[in-house]
Amino acid sequence: MATEPAGRTHDARCEVRNLTPHPLTLVFENGSDGPFTLAPLATHSLGFPSAQAEAAARQRLRTLHDRQIIRIADVAEASDDTAYIGFAFWALVLGLVGGGILAARFADFAKASWWGVQGSDWLMVGSPGALLLLLLLAYLMAKGKLAPWMRRASAGLRQLLTLLLVVGVAAALPLAAVALFARGGLGAEGWQGGLQLLAQGGTTGLGHTIVFTFVCVASALPGLLYFLFDRKRVTQLRENFEQQIFRLDRQVSTLADVQARYGSRLAEIWGGAGPVASARLFSGSQWPVVLCTLVVAGGWVVTVLFGAIQSPLPGPAGLSDLLRPLNSTYAFAFLGAYYFALRMIARRYTRGDLQPKAYSMVTARVLVVLVSAAVASAVFGESPPVWAFLFLVGVLPETFLVALREATGSRWRRQLQIAEDRLPLTRLEGIDLYDRARLEEEGIANLDNLAHGDLVDLMLNTSIATPQLVEWVDQAMLYLRAHNNPGAPDEHHADRLWHELRDMGVRRASDLVGDDGRLRRELTELLLARGADTAAQARISAMVDQLQTDEWFASVLHWRTHDHFEPQEWWVDEAGRATLQTRPPR
Predict the structure, then answer these.
(1) Which residues, other chains included, contact 397 with Cβ-Cβ below 8 Å and sequence gap of 6+?
(2) pTM score
(3) Is 507 exposed, middle or buried, given 0-12, 13-18 or 19+ CB atoms closer than 10 A?
């Protein structure tokens, strides 16, 4: 048994995959084959010099295969496809002969012409093409690839139609606005008048065309990024999850356990297991992309286009005046929301995390910001400071709530405390605005949601690295227990214990726990040296006891302590019985 030996006479080969996170070494009893090593979750292709060697190797590995330690899978040889190449050649010959016979049989059809090509040429190309297409379908069916190919083709066609719809909405809505301005209707005369308005000569016509083009591009850009997105391959995403889940979940030891616990979720997000040759095509609804394009296009039409087509262009220097937005709270609020949305989509684009769900968040953000603009306009009126403030509201919506609370004065703050989250995600180290917005999309609005949410779902649905997610969950667990919830949010004593622990270098809940599962001895000594009383020590000790009952904290500790897996050595006898050795056999 060897890995793809040169000059072997036996055609059969197989793939052996390690289904555990441990490096495996297989030692055979007679030693004739020598030890065989498999890296964690790795796959190797094995060749055999004879049929007897193949049968013996499969028999020896069968026990480990049945115990889900390894997986043995057949691999089709490339030589199996030579028959189809021969069939393709004869299909081409028969197609050309058949095309000539049909051209002679149907003389009238052969002499006719379509799109500058005679019917005889259509027959000479179509006949072999039809036979080759049938042969291709037969090949795909024989290889079991027809159904996956059809699914990918269907998903690709759906994405193509959605792309055309996004581009159509981004162009049709601004053009409809121009038609309404030109003729006051959307009939044939309106569309014709709108096109004439854009095609008129002089600097004014050029300016209107530039503004119209800018509005169309700005409206379509968020949606186009979704279709230009170079998605990671499904196999890569799935393998990355499999590697990380072994460190996090104590109850899984092989890929069979992973499939049993998380198989349905993996299939829902990435489809079935197995290699996938094409880039990922999302199976979910893509209507959020279209709806987002519609809302964004409407915003640009009202913000820029309506004002531009009503103004003449005195010269090239006046182009900036045509691109100037409408002086309104709604316009500047929309610009702020668009600024944040474009940055968010661009960042998710680069991080490989762009999904249709992101466009639902963009649509909701635009609508929420417009409602905030309506309230601000009614209360503060229209002025440049209000416009600038509403732009910031669009970029940072939470800033608006903070500013509103501070502007009401201290007399109303106590009543408004109910609107303030006492467990903000800003308490976490290493988290920025984008990460907070991304977690909020998954329903994680504060530290309590993060500490007691489904960490596996976050691993599957976001592109945030698993070590970073575990780090944030660990920090959130510490803050939840060190924070005095009854205290007022603006009082320092509410987080006093948390600040004291951080001064001692404790930034995560796992930092409190020693190897014996109790409060670390050196931490207790440091508390005494810093003058802490017995009440503080008792509270921290109680925190550690409470952490022991937390389900996700056990997973966090498992992650911290299982950063590597010890190699395993299996001794396989002649009958195929496999025994795990604690030390190398002599």
Answers:
(1) 365, 368, 369, 372
(2) 0.66
(3) middle
CA dist 370 and 364 (Å) reads 10
Q: Alpha-carbon distance 453 to 555, whole Å?
A: 13
Which contiguous run of DSSP H or E holds residue 73?
strand 70-74
Q: Decide if 318 contacts 376 (C-beta within 8 A).
A: no
Whether the CB-CB separation of 504 and 537 falls below 8 Å is answered with no
Q: What is the DSSP letter of 513?
A: B
The DSSP H or E segment spanning 182 is helix 146-183
Query: Are the C-beta atoms of 173 and 297 separated by less than 8 Å?
Result: yes
Q: Which residue has the higher pLDDT, 418 or 327?
A: 327
The answer to whether 396 and 421 are in contact (CB under 8 A) is no
Please report which confidence band the pLDDT of residue 300 belongs to, taking 50, 70 and 90 as the band edges: very high
Q: Determine how many CB atoms are found less than 10 A away from the CB of residue 77.
A: 11
Q: Which ranges of 352-396 would DSSP assign to H, the alpha helix?
A: 356-380, 384-395
Q: Kindly report the number of other CB atoms within 10 A of residue 522's CB atom.
A: 10
Taking the C-alpha atoms of residue 476 and residue 472, their distance in angstroms, rounded to an integer, is 6
Cβ–Cβ under 8 Å, residues 391 and 336: yes
For the chain, the domains span: 13-76+572-581, 81-142, 155-395, 421-549
Give the contacts of 458 (CB within 8 A, at least 6 positions apart).
Answer: 439, 442, 444, 464, 469
Give the number of other Cβ atoms within 10 Å of residue 460's Cβ: 18
Would you say 24 and 581 are in contact if contact means Cβ atoms under 8 Å apart? no
Torsion region of 477: left, alpha or beta (phi above 0 gives left; psi -120 to 50 gives alpha):
alpha
| Residue 297: closest CA among 393, 167, 387 | 167
CB atoms within 10 A of CB 440: 14
**Is the predicted pLDDT of residue 378 greater than 70, yes or no?**
yes
- 200 with 211: CB under 8 angstroms? no
Whole-number Å distance between alpha carbons of 360 and 291: 8
Q: What is the pLDDT of residues 525-541, one digit of tens each?
A: 777 777 766 777 788 88
Instruction: In whole angstroms, give the CA distance from residue 232 to residue 280.
Output: 7
User: What is the rounded distance in angstroms from the CA atom of residue 164 to the CA atom of residue 187?
Assistant: 23
Tokens (6 digits) for 4: 């793809």
How many CB atoms are closer than 10 A to CB 452?
15
β-pair type (568-572, 24-28): parallel
CA atoms within 13 A on the CB side of 152: 13
Q: Return d(Cα 173, Cα 178) in angstroms, integer.
A: 9
- The 3-state secondary structure of 522-573 reads HHHHHHHHCCCCHHHHHHHHHHHHHHCCCHHHHHHHHHHHCCCCCCEEEEEC
d(CA 20, CA 52): 29
C-alpha distance from residue 175 to each of 63, 210, 313 (Å): 69, 13, 19
| Three-class SS state of 486 | coil
